[in-house]
């Protein structure tokens, strides 16, 4: 059984309704249930640059090291690049976090975590991000990030079969 959920923080929702744009950061949370065990799903995600193997929008991922920090440069299908910095990595907890350094996406101050948790005999994959809208309405930024998460989670679920 697959399920997908989106969460917009109550504070951000109130700000959008009251003022037309958020005074607070926006949140998107998407999850999908898969039949595979957490270890198998985590293995399917691969390393920090493993996103190139499971996200349908990523053509290529290049791992980079600079000043003791780990970055990935994502080349997108159809053009464009996103530079992300690894913020956390926890093999035991099956999760990693990252921030966007540079991108064409309509967001700024972006931080995200991708995690895998046991769910019965299967797993739940969760991708959550916090960000501000940049050069776009809040609703558009939420739609873009939500679409990226949906496509990526579906790609992981397919690879983890």
Automatic annotation (TrEMBL):
SUPFAM superfamilies to which the protein is assigned, alphabetical: Bet v1-like (SSF55961)
CDD domains, alphabetized: PYR_PYL_RCAR_like
Cited Pfam families: Polyketide_cyc2
InterPro entries, per the entry: Polyketide_cyclase/dehydratase, START-like_dom_sf
Keywords, sorted A to Z: Signal
Signal peptide positions on this chain: 1-25
Stated name of the protein: SRPBCC family protein
Source organism per UniProt: Dongia sedimenti
Taxonomic lineage of the native organism: Bacteria, Pseudomonadati, Pseudomonadota, Alphaproteobacteria, Rhodospirillales
């Amino acid at each position: 059984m697959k399920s997908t959920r989106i969460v917009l923080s109550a504070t951000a929702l109130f700000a959008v309704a009251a003022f037309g744009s958020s005074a607070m950061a926006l949140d998107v949370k998407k999850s999908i249930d898969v039949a595979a065990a957490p270890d198998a799903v985590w293995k399917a995600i691969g390393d920090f640059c493993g996103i190139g193997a499971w996200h349908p929008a990523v053509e290529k991922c290049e791992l980079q090291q600079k000043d003791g920090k780990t970055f990935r440069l994502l080349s997108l299908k159809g053009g464009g690049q996103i530079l992300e910095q690894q913020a956390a990595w926890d093999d035991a907890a099956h999760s990693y976090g990252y921030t966007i350094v540079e991108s064409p996406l309509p967001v700024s101050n972006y931080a995200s975590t991708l995690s895998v948790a046991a769910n019965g005999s299967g797993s739940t994959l969760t991708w959550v991000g916090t960000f501000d809208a940049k050069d776009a309405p809040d609703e558009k930024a939420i739609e873009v990030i939500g679409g990226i998460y949906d496509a990526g989670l579906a790609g992981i679920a397919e690879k983890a079969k």
